[in-house]
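Structure ticket #2291
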Amino acid sequence: MNIRAALARMHEPRPDFVSVSSLLALFQDSTATAALTRAQTAAWRAPRGDTQHADRALALTGDAPAPFLRYLIGDFYEHVGAFEASLAAITRAAAETPCWDPMLVAWAYNGVAGALGHLGRFDEAREVLSALWAYDPFYPNALDTAARVGAPPPEAITPRGRASSLRLALANQLYGDNREPGFRATAMAMSFVWEGQHLAAASMAELGARLPGPDPAWPRAIASYARAAAAHTPGVLPALPSGGVTARVKAVRAAQKAGEHAVLEVAAHDPELAVARAAWSALLEVGHRADELGALIRELVAATTSPHGQPILAMEIGAVLQGAPLPAIPAVDLVARAVAAIAQGAHTSLPSAPCPTTVGVPPSLAAWLQVGSLDEVAPSPVLTLVRRAHGALFDAMPERLATCPALPLQLPETVNDRLELLLLA
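Resolution: structure written out below.
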């Protein structure tokens, strides 16, 4: 793929977690991971002109759309002076880069421009860098490349990109040690800048300057720009809660009690998983952006599940949904859906003989009894019914679900692998 096509494809909408999940899938294969680690270590130690270890890393990557790793491979080739191979690796990485990740977008432009510069193609390098300034004029490596090829950043800047900050917040956490907290905060700060959330961007960048990872001058440059822009267009999100991780978690809990949804939303983008998880749980609890967040988490879980299992970080993120409150759907509507499904032939253990309704029966139960009877008429907590059916096997469940009153659609002791309940709360 040529450079123009690769950079154009990078900016096509790509709302997925493939760029991270493919990297994680490689690392879940212990044999491949060990071989890749050996190749990477040897590539950095290789003398000029020796591409065998970079070639090995490239072969181990295969067709996986893992731009993060491909950028590293491009660096390996650059290290030994194989600039054509470096340009090829980075061009492919750019084509696989999601447009909503500012750090990878900046890496793509700078990598391509740097390889072009090493090949003496200075006009093309300057053209690539001039396109970068529209997205991120603060990326320090690009500033170094620009100095080598003669492409200074413009004096007037208004960075804009295809931001998807909540998606980036989840992806940031998946990187784990591959993207330290300071880098995660810096990437998020640029995403907020793209969205015009300048107040939140400034506080996020200032946090990034204090956390392990980047040269503090980089996030501070973003913070300086965002602070100035916030004087005119602060955005709807407030500054990130201040203090250490514990203090920020406490701020999330206080905001949840006070109903301060904007604070919860900005905290949901925190670079530290403990803070972000607390904010995600709170957002699901209060219902603010809950549908979007829930859909993103389910998408992440699906994208990171492979024959080798699921990475621990993905499991921790997915666990947030397990503690979420039950959907706020009226019980009568749920019954109507179930009855419609039964009418279309869906499996149910409910006997077919209708049962007369009595005065005082909840509307949802009355609707259900119009199509069948029940083996029990006294409600029991869900956990009690589950224990009757499966013992202690499924004891670990959210408290709200465990204590919810329900009626079994057949006696729990008689079920095989599926216990069907009618929730009454």
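Closing remark: The beta strands are 380-381, 405-408, 421-423.
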